[in-house]
Design brief:
Strand content: 5-15%
CATH class: Alpha Beta
Shape: globular
Radius of gyration: 18 Å
Helix content: 25-40%
Number of helices: 9
Distance between the termini: 51 Å
CATH superfamily: Divalent-metal-dependent TIM barrel enzymes
Amino acid sequence: MKSAGALAALAVLRPQLAAARATSRAAIAYSALPAALTPLERLQLAADAGYRGVEMLDVESTADVRDLRLAAERTGVRIHCVSDTSYERHPLSSDDPAVMRRGVASIATSLRNARFWGADAVSIVPASGRDTTYQEAWSRSQQTLYQRVLPMARDTGVVIAVEKVWDGFLVGPFEVARYVDAFDSPWVQAAFDTTSAPFYTRPGDWIRTLGPRIANVRVGGDCDLAAVRAALDEVEYDGWVTFSSSGAARPVAPAGGAAPRTRGRNVPGGAGVTDRLGGSASRADSGGRR
């Protein structure tokens, strides 16, 4: 960590010391750390900058998975979440069973890695609204999650965190809430990224609507961090806040208290979800927690 590049990266990533002391749940996206460094060097850089955790992307190489665990153990930086990126190539809403199965297999790998690393959650984008109707995207993805993914989440003890991106599906916070609530399970929650909130909806509105459903938060871009922190405090969120780029590398301190294993709701797991699939894909922002 003595190279000029590493020192320059540290200067960019280092958060304000007062803010870093205010929370033990400030994290940085692994992809925001210099790719030229080894896993150990990248996590050490995060630790030196004041971050306590990292959000990892999906990793296929067994050797890389082991190296990342060793790096986390040596640096004390926790891998708290895995972001599965297979949805672009293998959406769970695909009408091609082979494509859907590849998406499920990628999520299965991410769940195993998350358990091996001690992570709380795997963030997924459940469907794409680009190549199918909205109703089909909703119904297919929920059936696949319920039948194939939810059992794996229970077995691994890792939460599935449903994430909204710019793909024409789950475009508002009430839709995300209804989608998550349909499973009625602590193993299916929500991930919130400030960069995915449409320009006409404030991040604070998403946070207040999703409330206790939120498993993790990602901050990036040009957002009002003070407003985000206020909304997180209002819903008593005490989980991880991950910065998705070095440009946003300033910790937000959520409400105090020790970070829990999950933000899950104490409800039965998944019962009756298939009965609620029909007619549940309305795009109107109505509904929410029942």
